Each structure stands twice: as structure tokens, then as C-alpha cells.
């Protein structure tokens, strides 16, 4: 006896097998269709492979024990990611509706899951497109030689650089001051940064044109946006491997520390990364699968997508760390050269008496003979390991570390253009799924008038989203982006994923689901899928959710600011959030998570009142 | 007699050496990093190079003070090190025991800095006058900003694309509507059918069941009409 909650009227809400076959053969459906299987796979790959693969996974890999991190990552990919993926694919393909439609068909009380997915997709889409706007800004500025982030503006008498630039670096200054003009706190909005507004306009317009006819247009666009990143990564891999210090970076990335596997945070971070990487819970995958033919082999698709995502993460991490290794080696070499020059100047030694190879010996000799002079100099400690681990996550990786590395390569404008085109393609292809996950539920919830064509719905959604995202074009925009990143895309997604599995396994019924898969694919899902759907995957998601909530609630909420007046400048200073931020956090994380139970309760109350 | 002449001859150079000391208030320290700048093509620093330096500096002083004829002998150098660094002071051509003030020397060097650098194939960083900060080259800001140009190109292309897509959608819809009108008119033997009217009052105009079934049978082969009926 399977544990299934009573669900009256389910058969009335969903098409039965004869209906499905008839719709298939007669093409009597008005639903859009994929032109070919390749479009579908490329769209899903583009959706899953996003900016996180370039700037989150490599950092996690390196900080949690290098090569050893691959073990929890791959295990959780198979045990947590793949079952969730197949669940969304199969339910979309079977019920042939977008996310709200699917959950409403399973049970009207569960519509809240669809609403939550839509809210999460909207909130994530807002800040994600801001990241793409910043990427576009850098892309637009890459068409000049020398690149603008190699130069500091001069101070008033022309003998030195502006102090903010002098104390940090040209790339830091360009990102925080020239591009964002960041204020010193999230409360200090400062005004609108107009170049960023223009870039936001570009980003939203590009998304609008690619999604304007739904998968009719986005299906064509993915041929470019999903394939181009792989080509560019290959080019960067070849270039990266020929650079000095690439192998240092790769060794740093992949050197396994098996002790890290004992640390629970390693497994939690791996699980969270797998979960977010697959784009489960956004609603886009359900929508995309619903355009598939009924007998499409979704099991094969889930496995293919999991394998592709895993391999791409490792591929992107390799490329990233060759470039990081190169930059760290360059900085180390220049640090050593600076120290050598200081020693030569102080002791009046001829120029080639100290080289990088005999630096240590010479330094020790000079230190022992005249330590007081050495103390008076400003000899810096050059540590390659520190340089390899600095700033290598998130926006810091793309806009600071990578841009600095690119300026050291010959022909830097070309490399810069390639790199930012790749990042923008990665981001845009993820946003296709995002927009799908917002527009289709809005249509199902009848937010738009019925007569409106798809073009109008997409256009209005993008226009409204553009206006809301001007929030991120303020001088405090980067702090808002980080806030959204931390809260809108974490707890709600885990909650939705958990509810999705409970809904399909225990409310729709795992037996019915197995029969559906047998009808669609030809054979029942094996014992692996049964066990993971019923116990393992929900348990893993629940554990990650609980641990995440516990750690978040315990720690004081702080964020990093760029403050030239702070003591830690040029490092980012850690300051606590203002107290009104808790309201915002509740709106971002609480409202989507609570949408599921609240909707069910409201519906219950409404029906009870109606009966009376 | 001979000793007196000897002392008199040595006096200028002795005086000159007294004038130039490391840390002199009117002198500057110069540091050259030839190997850093030129690598394999670095030249060896020797007496001839020093002569060139003194001559170049005399040139700089002459350029700055129009009319006063400075000579190589007015540039006094001391404290040479293997690093290739040394101190120099500039004596006035009118009175060799008087030094030219620090500020004047600084101005003269600043004015002709480029010429001094190119005489030695060096740059501001590799030919350092300690205490004279080089005037840095201002960053190049091309006008109009290149990013606006790229932005304009992309927005223009995307805008044109959107307009084209919208226009083709509208045209396609109009064409479909006309086709349906023509098809329905043909099927029902000349009765003028308007697709819009069809939506609301087909039940009224088509009376008995066989006609309804023929309409349904026809309509089920036209996808969108079927959707309307369902």
C-alpha cells in the first residue's frame, strides 16, 4: 500500500492516455512545439548552464578540497539532481501544461507551488538580468585599445592617480567607481547610474526579442546562446594552457584534500550547488517539457542533461583556473620584482645581481648583514597561495580577476570581447527559461486579458521587469543584487523542490506516475528512481533546507561594502544590514516559500465560506 | 711656483667635489635601470654615457634659462654606484662656486624630461630623478565613447528585429483570417462566412444535427477552429 493522500477529481483535470495519443496524432493542439529534439536539449542545457558554472562551482571546488569536491558533487548530482530533473520533465510532458497548470491539475490546492515558482523566477530574473547588464557594459567597453580598466584617472596636479584608484587597483576602481559608482551602504541609494540603465534596457530588449514568440523565437536563439559558450571556453582553454602559471592554477584547483569530505558543509554546499545548477523549481523546465511529443524519452533526457551539466561544470572550472593561475603567477612575479628593485635601490647593487631565482638567498644574506635597512624598506610578503585564492567567486571573479588577467594577455580587447560575449550568452540562455517560467504562469493565472497574443504578454512582462530592475541601477545596486542572490534564490527554491516531490509522489501518486512513465517511455522507472523519488531526494533537500535556515538564523546578517573611508580598504568591509532589511528579506524569501501553504489555506477557507 | 699652479688647477675640481655631496640640498639623485628597460639590448654604463648625461642636462638648463650658456663642466656628478645611480649638482655658469637652486633645476628637468629620456632610450620609470615626480600621461578618453557606439548598433539591430517580428505576426494573422474566410465560403457553397461571426452564432445558423456534424467534421481538420469549438 502506497501512502497517497486522497485526491478526488484528479482524472477529470488531466488528459487521459487516449486523449494524449489523439492530440499527438491529430496535432489538434494549439500548443507550441519544438522544431526538433536538438532545440529542446539545447534550451535545457542553456538553461542549466549559467553564470554559476563559471563563477560559483570553481570556487566551491577549490575551497572544499579541490579534486575531492568532485566526489560529493557527482554523488549528489546523481542522487538529488537527476531524480528531480526527471520528475519535472515527466510531469510536464504528461500533463502538458506550464508550472501553474501542472500543479493545479494535480490538485487545485497545490496551485501555490506554481505561484511560488513564478515569484521565484521573477525575483531571480530581475537580479540575474542586472548581472547581464553589467556584463554588457563591459562588453560594450571592450571595443577599445587600451581597455578602460587599465587606466586610472589622474589627480589634480597630474603627478599621481586618484587616491581611491591608487590604493586599490585599476580594475577595482573601474568596477566599483566607474561602472557602478557604488555608495558605501545599501541604505544610501545615491541616485541612478545612467549607463547601467542603458545596459539594462539593452539586456531586457534582447531577452524580449528572443522570447517574443515563446519557444518559436527562443528555440532559434539557443543555437547561438547555448553553443557559443562551449566554443569560447575551448578557445580560452587553449589560450589558458599556453599561459605561464596555468598549471599552477590547475594544480591548486584539483589537488584533493580528502579531509574536507568529513566536513558537512562540503556536502551541503555540493547539494545546494547541484540543486541551483539544475534550475529545478523555477518552472521553466516543466514548461519546456510540456512542448515535447508525448512519447519523448524523458528518462534519457534527464540522464543526458545531468551528465552534460556535470561535465560542463568541470570543463568551465578547468578553464577558469588556468586563467586564475596565470594572473596569480603574474602578480607574484611582479611582487618579487618590486621587492628585488627595492633591495637593489637600497643597497646600490648592480641590476642583475639579484634575480628571481636567487632572490631568497640574496634576501637572507642582506637581512642577516643589515637587518635595520631591510626593516626600513617596504618589503612585501609574496605568497602564491594567497594570490590564487583571492577574489575568485561571483562578480569578483568575472569583473576583477578575469579582467585583470585579460589585460596581461597580448591582444586583450579581443579576449575581453570573447569572454564577455560568452558570459552574456550563458546568462541570456538561462533567462529564456526564466521568462518562460514567468510568462506562462501569468497566462495560466489569467493575469493578462485572454485576447492578448504572446508577443504582448512577453513585451509587457519585460517592460515591467525593466522598470523594477532600475532599482539595481542605483548607486547601492550591487548590494541589492547580492541581497537578492542570497535570499531570493536559496530558501524558496529548496522549499519548492521539496513540495514538488511530495506533491508528485504522495498526492499525484507514485503508482500513477510510474504508469505514466511506462505509457510515455515504454518501461517503468527502475528501482533507483523509486527509491530516490520517494525517500532520498526529498530527504536531502529537507536536510539542506533545515541546515541552511539554522545557519542563517544564527548568524548576524552582514554584507560587504566598498567603502574608501573604511579601515580595511581596499578589501571590502563587512557591515551589518539596517534593520528594515528584514522586511525585504521576508518579501524575497518568505513570500514565495509561504505561497504554497497560504494558497492552500485560502482556497480551503474560500470554499468553506462559499458552501455556507 | 709649480705647486701654486698645481693647487690652482686642482682647486676647481676640489671645490666642485665639495659642492657635490650625497644628500646635497641643491642636488638630485639619479637612478637608471637600463637592464630593466632594454633587456638584451642594454648598453654598458661607462664614462661616455656619463658625459652624454652631463651634456643632456646642460642642454636642459640652457633650454630653461634662455641665454645662459651652461657647459658640461657645470654639471657636477658624484657618488656613482654599481646600481647606476649618482648625485649631481648644477653650478652657475657665471660663478662656478655657486649652485643653481633646486627648484630651477627641477623646472629645467621637467621641461626637457622627454628629451633626456629619449637620449638614453629610457622612460620616466627607468630614468628616475628622485624627488622630481613625473607628470603622468593623462588617460585617453576617446570621444564619442566607444561603448555608446556599440550600444547604439545593438539596440538598433534589436529594435529593427522586434519591429520586423511584430509586423510579420500581424501580417500572418491577417493572412490566416482571409484564408479561413475563403475556405469556409467554398465549403458551404457560396454562403458568405465571416470567421468572427462564426465564433458566436454558428449554432443558430446551422440548424439540424447532420449540418452541425458536417461543420464539426470540417472544423476538426482546421486546428484553430477546433480549439475555438472546444
Please indicate the percent range of residues of chain A in DSSP E strands (runs of 2 or more).
Answer: under 5%
Low-confidence stretches of chain B are: 197-230
Q: Which fold name corresponds to the CATH topology of chain A?
A: Amino acid/polyamine transporter I
Number of helices of chain B: 9
Top-tier CATH class of chain A:
Mainly Alpha
N/C terminus separation of chain B: 133 Å
User: Quick check: average pLDDT of chain A?
Assistant: 90
User: What is the annotated CATH architecture of chain A?
Assistant: Up-down Bundle
Residue windows where pLDDT falls under 50 for at least 5 positions of chain A: none
Biggest sheet architecture of chain B: 4 strands, antiparallel
Q: Can you describe what's shown?
A:
The complex is a heterodimer of chains A (612) and B (230). Chain A has 612 residues and is mainly α. Chain A has one domain: Amino acid/polyamine transporter I. Helix content of chain A is 70%, strand content 1%. Chain A contains 27 helices and 2 strands. Chain A has a two-stranded antiparallel ribbon with strand order 1-2. In chain A, α6 (70-95) crosses α26 (527-554). Chain A is elongated and about 95 Å long. Chain B is α+β, with helices and mostly antiparallel strands. Chain B has a domain at 15-130. Chain B has 9 helices and 4 strands, in the order αβααββααβαααα. Chain B has helices at residues 2-19, 34-38, 47-64, 102-111, 113-119, 146-187, 195-205, 209-219, 223-229; strands at residues 28-32, 75-81, 85-90, 127-130. Chain B has a 4-stranded antiparallel sheet, with helices on both faces. In chain B, β2 and β3 form a beta hairpin. In chain B, α3 (47-64) crosses α4 and α3 packs antiparallel against α5. The longest helix of chain B is centred in the last third of the chain and has 42 residues, at 146-187. In chain B, 16% of the residues are buried. Residues 197-230 of chain B have low confidence and may be disordered. The A-B interface holds A 26-30, 137, 139-141, 143-144, 146, 151-154, 158-161, 195, 198-199, 201-202, 205-206, 208-209, 212-213, 217, 341, 344-345, 348-352, 453, 455 and B 31, 33-36, 81-85, 133-136, 138-140, 142, 146-151, 154-155, 158-159, 161-162, 165-166, 169, 220, 223-224, 226-227. Chain A: The chain crosses the membrane at residues 40-58, 70-91, 112-140, 192-215, 227-254, 274-291, 303-324, 417-439, 460-481, 487-510, 531-550, 580-606. Chain A: One of its GO terms (cellular component) is brush border membrane. Chain A: One of its GO terms (biological process) is sodium ion transmembrane transport. Chain A: GO terms for molecular function: metal ion binding; neutral L-amino acid transmembrane transporter activity; symporter activity. Chain A: It is found in: Membrane.
Amino acid at each position: 500500500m502506497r501512502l497517497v493522500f486522497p485526491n478526488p477529481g484528479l482524472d477529470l483535470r488531466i488528459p487521459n492516455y487516449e486523449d494524449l495519443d489523439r492530440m499527438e496524432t491529430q496535432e489538434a493542439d494549439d500548443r507550441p512545439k519544438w522544431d526538433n529534439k536538438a532545440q529542446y536539449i539545447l534550451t535545457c542545457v542553456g538553461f542549466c548552464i549559467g553564470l554559476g558554472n563559471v563563477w560559483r562551482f570553481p570556487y566551491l571546488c577549490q575551497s572544499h578540497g579541490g579534486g575531492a569536491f568532485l566526489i560529493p558533487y557527482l554523488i549528489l548530482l546523481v542522487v538529488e539532481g537527476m531524480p528531480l530533473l526527471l520528475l519535472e520533465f515527466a510531469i510536464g510532458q504528461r500533463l502538458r501544461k506550464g508550472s501553474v497548470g501542472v500543479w493545479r491539475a494535480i490538485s487545485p490546492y497545490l496551485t501555490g507551488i506554481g505561484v511560488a515558482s513564478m515569484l521565484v523566477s521573477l525575483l531571480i530574473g530581475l537580479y540575474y538580468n542586472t548581472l547581464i547588464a553589467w556584463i554588457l557594459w563591459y562588453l560594450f567597453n571592450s571595443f577599445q585599445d587600451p581597455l578602460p580598466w587599465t587606466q586610472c584617472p589622474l589627480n589634480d596636479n597630474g603627478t599621481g592617480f586618484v587616491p581611491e584608484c591608487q590604493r586599490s587597483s585599476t580594475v577595482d576602481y573601474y568596477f566599483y567607481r566607474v561602472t557602478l559608482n557604488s555608495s558605501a551602504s545599501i541604505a544610501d541609494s545615491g541616485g541612478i547610474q545612467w549607463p547601467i540603465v542603458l545596459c539594462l534596457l539593452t539586456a531586457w530588449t534582447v531577452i524580449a526579442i528572443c522570447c517574443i514568440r515563446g519557444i518559436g523565437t527562443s528555440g532559434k536563439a539557443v543555437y547561438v546562446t547555448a553553443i557559443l559558450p562551449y566554443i569560447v571556453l575551448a578557445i580560452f582553454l587553449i589560450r589558458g594552457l599556453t599561459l605561464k602559471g596555468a598549471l599552477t592554477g590547475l594544480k591548486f584547483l584539483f589537488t584533493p584534500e580528502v579531509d574536507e569530505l568529513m566536513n558537512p558543509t562540503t556536502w551541503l554546499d555540493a547539494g545546494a550547488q547541484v540543486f541551483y545548477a539544475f534550475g529545478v523549481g523555477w518552472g521553466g523546465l516543466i514548461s519546456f517539457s510540456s512542448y515535447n511529443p508525448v512519447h519523448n524519452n524523458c528518462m534519457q533526457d534527464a540522464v543526458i542533461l545531468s551528465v552534460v551539466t556535470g561535465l560542463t561544470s568541470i570543463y568551465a572550472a578547468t578553464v577558469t583556473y588556468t586563467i586564475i593561475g596565470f594572473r596569480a603567477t603574474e602578480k607574484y612575479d611582479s611582487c618579487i620584482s618590486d621587492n628585488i628593485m627595492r633591495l637593489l635601490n637600497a643597497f646600490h647593487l648592480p641590476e642583475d645581481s639579484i634575480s628571481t631565482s636567487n632572490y631568497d638567498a640574496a634576501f637572507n644574506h642582506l637581512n642577516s648583514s643589515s637587518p635595520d635597512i631591510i626593516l626600513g624598506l617596504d618589503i612585501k610578503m609574496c605568497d602564491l597561495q594567497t594570490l590564487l585564492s583571492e577574489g575568485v567567486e561571483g562578480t569578483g571573479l568575472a569583473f576583477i580577476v578575469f579582467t585583470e588577467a585579460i589585460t596581461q594577455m597580448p591582444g586583450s580587447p579581443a579576449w575581453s570581447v570573447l569572454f564577455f560575449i560568452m558570459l552574456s550568452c550563458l546568462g541570456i540562455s538561462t533567462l529564456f527559461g526564466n521568462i518562460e517560467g514567468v510568462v506562462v504562469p501569468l497566462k495560466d493565472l489569467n493575469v493578462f486579458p485572454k485576447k492578448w497574443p504572446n508577443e504582448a504578454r512577453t513585451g509587457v512582462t519585460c517592460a515591467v521587469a525593466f522598470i523594477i530592475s532600475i532599482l539595481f541601477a542605483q548607486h547601492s545596486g550591487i548590494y541589492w543584487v547580492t541581497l537578492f542572490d542570497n535570499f531570493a534564490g536559496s530558501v524558496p527554491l529548496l522549499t519548492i523542490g521539496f513540495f514538488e516531490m511530495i506533491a508528485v509522489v504522495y498526492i499525484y501518486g507514485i503508482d500513477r506516475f510510474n504508469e505514466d512513465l511506462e505509457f510515455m517511455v515504454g518501461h517503468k522507472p527502475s528501482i533507483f528512481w523509486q527509491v530516490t523519488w520517494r525517500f532520498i531526494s526529498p530527504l536531502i533537500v529537507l536536510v539542506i533546507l533545515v541546515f541552511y535556515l539554522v545557519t542563517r538564523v544564527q548568524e548576524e546578517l552582514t554584507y560587504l561594502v566598498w567603502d574608501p573611508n573604511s579601515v580595511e580598504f581596499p578589501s571590502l568591509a563587512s557591515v551589518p544590514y539596517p534593520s528594515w532589511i528584514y522586511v525585504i528579506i521576508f518579501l524575497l524569501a518568505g513570500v514565495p516559500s509561504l505561497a504554497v501553504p497560504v494558497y492552500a489555506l485560502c482556497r480551503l477557507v474560500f470554499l468553506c465560506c462559499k458552501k455556507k | 711656483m709649480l705647486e701654486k699652479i698645481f693647487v690652482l688647477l686642482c682647486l676647481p675640481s676640489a671645490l666642485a667635489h665639495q659642492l657635490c655631496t650625497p644628500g646635497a640640498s641643491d642636488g638630485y639623485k639619479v637612478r637608471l635601470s637600463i637592464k630593466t628597460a632594454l633587456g638584451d639590448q642594454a648598453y654598458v654604463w661607462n664614462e661616455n654615457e656619463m658625459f652624454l648625461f652631463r651634456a643632456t642636462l646642460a642642454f636642459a638648463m640652457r633650454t630653461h634659462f634662455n641665454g645662459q650658456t651652461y657647459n658640461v663642466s657645470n654639471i657636477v656628478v658624484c657618488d656613482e654606484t654599481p646600481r647606476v645611480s649618482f648625485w649631481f649638482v648644477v653650478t652657475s655658469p657665471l660663478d662656478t662656486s655657486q649652485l643653481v637652486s633646486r627648484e630651477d633645476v627641477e623646472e629645467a628637468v621637467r621641461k626637457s624630461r622627454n628629451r633626456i629620456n629619449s637620449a638614453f632610450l629610457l622612460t620616466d620609470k627607468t630614468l628616475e630623478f628622485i624627488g622630481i615626480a613625473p607628470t603622468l600621461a593623462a588617460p585617453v578618453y576617446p570621444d564619442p565613447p566607444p561603448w555608446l557606439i556599440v550600444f547604439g548598433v545593438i539596440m538598433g539591430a534589436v529594435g529593427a528585429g522586434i519591429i520586423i517580428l511584430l509586423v510579420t505576426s500581424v501580417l500572418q494573422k491577417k493572412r490566416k483570417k482571409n484564408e479561413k474566410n475563403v475556405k469556409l465560403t467554398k465549403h458551404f457553397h457560396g454562403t458568405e462566412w465571416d470567421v468572427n461571426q462564426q465564433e458566436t452564432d454558428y449554432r443558430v445558423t446551422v440548424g439540424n444535427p447532420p449540418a452541425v456534424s458536417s461543420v464539426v467534421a470540417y472544423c476538426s481538420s482546421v486546428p484553430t477552429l477546433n480549439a475555438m469549438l472546444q
